[in-house]
Amino acid sequence: MATNPATEMALPTRFGRILMSDACQKIDFHWGRLHIDGSAFSFIALGLASRPPHGIGCRVQHLKKNRGAQYNPTANRIEVPKASFGTNPGEEMEVVHEATHAIADATTKSKMRGELEETAAYVAGALYNINAAASISGPFPVTPTGIWLAAHNVALQIVGNPGYALSPIIASPLRQAVLTSPTYAFLKQTPNYTHDGVSL
Ligand SMILES: [Zn+2]
């Protein structure tokens, strides 16, 4: 796919703005070793504003089927299928999701079970969608379906509790939705996500 560097260069600024928005900065929960909150998203926004090879990059590239976007923990890069990515509510949720993977990469130096990290990333995206609504009963910018619906139902239980330590019992339906999704069939062969840090 031919990429226009000028439009690709707009991605870090656009993604940084999403992460610094009120809806994202209000996110605050613990999940195992992860603390997903406004200051962690601010660190990722700072990473996006850094100059390569430091910080977090953005790249437009072809992605596998069923993938809206992905975080590459080796390259410290958010990879998206088009330079206009992040300009509608569904894509904004996905940016928050991928930024949560970047938080895991930046703040944990060890491996993590893929479905556990996905659980955190989906809850963060779902909280963003709920926080962006006028009330927690909606209407929501994105009507969740599939894994996002499981995440939405988890997020609704913790949205009013900043700093909440998400319990495995509450998260269980979401974790199962990830494990049974064709998108994450690869977790059967490669169950762990690796992290090597993010330097600014
Ligand atoms: Zn993910």
Calculate the mean pLDDT score and round it: 94
Report the helical percentage. 40-55%
What sequence of helices (H) and strands (E) makes up the elements?
A: HHHEEHEEEHEHHEHE
Structural class: alpha/beta
Strand content: 5-15%
Main sheet overview: 3 strands, mixed
Strand order in space, largest sheet: 2-1-7
Globally, the shape reads globular
Q: What is the domain total for the residues?
A: 1
Ligand names: zinc ion
In short:
This protein has 200 residues and is an alpha/beta fold. Helices cover 46% and strands 12% of the residues.
Notes on the protein architecture:
By secondary structure, the chain is of the alpha/beta class. It has one domain (5-192). Helices cover 46% and strands 12% of the residues. The chain has helices at 5-8, 10-19, 22-25, 38-49, 89-107, 114-131, 147-158, 168-179; strands at 28-31, 34-37, 57-60, 70-72, 77-80, 112-113, 164-165, 192-193. A 3-stranded mixed sheet has the order 2-1-7. The chain has a 3-stranded mixed sheet with strand order 3-5-4, covered by helices on one side. It has a two-stranded antiparallel ribbon with strand order 6-8. A hairpin with a 4-residue loop joins β4 and β5 (77-80). α5 (89-107) crosses α6 and α7 runs antiparallel to α8. The longest helix has 19 residues, at 89-107. It starts with a helix and ends in a 7-residue tail after the last strand. The model has no long low-confidence stretch (mean pLDDT 94). The structure holds zinc ion (ZN). Zinc ion binds at residues 97, 101, 118, 121.
